[in-house]
Design brief:
single chain, alpha/beta, 5-stranded parallel β-sheet
Amino acid sequence: MYRQHFGLVEHPFSLTPDTQFFFNSQSHREVLSTLLLALRHSEGFIKIVGEVGTGKTLLSRKLLASLGDNFLTAYIPNPYLTPEELKWFLAEEIGIAYSPEMPSYQLLREINQRLVDLAQQKRQVVLVVDEAQAMPRETIEALRLLTNLETEKNKLLQVVLIGQPELDDLLNRPDLRQLKQRIVFSEYLQGIPRKSLADYISYRLSSAGYRGANLFSRSALALLYRASGGVPRLINVISHKAMLAAYGEKSGKVTRSHMARAIADTRESRSIGRVLAKQNLWLWPAVAVLAAASALLIPGFLGISL
């Protein structure tokens, strides 16, 4: 589409959670640092909560890419598993040969022995559960019981729970209070602050190969923030559409009018952003008409002499 027009080698605002585009904002940096510190000290359960679109999946992939060879990681993108499926998944990830016919107690014994062997090899097992708010209550309890496996000094299995705010509601259930008490670190992932939006856009563009001057005008960025609220996924969706609008006009810059059209086409935009976008779409044609009329009626307007 617009890659060649803007001198890009990749699409800068793809929704695929690619760690190449991980922007080190203050909130994401602090959460990642907390995760790495906690895992290196074998702290058991860690909980990360963030609203929809704040980059939780990208953060989890960045975490997995940041851990060294002394970690053995398992990632669950869809946690809607039964307790037995959870054990089968963990067994497979840590290298246990099993069959569904294996009795549950035997499988648990095999998992425990394998975790002990890995600990003796100085390898720490980390289970990352994405979208953890969707995990059934019985499976969460099975996960808690798995973390009972430990040596005298260290946990044999560490768990990172990453989810939407509904995860807090789930863990506030009285029957899950034992698990909640085991959460050593709890962090809340924020969006991109207004002051960092220009840097976020520039970072995504440069990571995709852009080498020119500032591509988005300041007024376009201001409108973008009002419409997205700093939510990375919304920023990416709207920015992609704004670049398409600029490309359609063969423009070398994304202007406020391009951004307004992108916002008007995005139902998920914040209401204040859509209102401003509609006002902008109405105002700019009127300004253009007035400017054209003034140029004809007033000598010297826009530097034109009659």
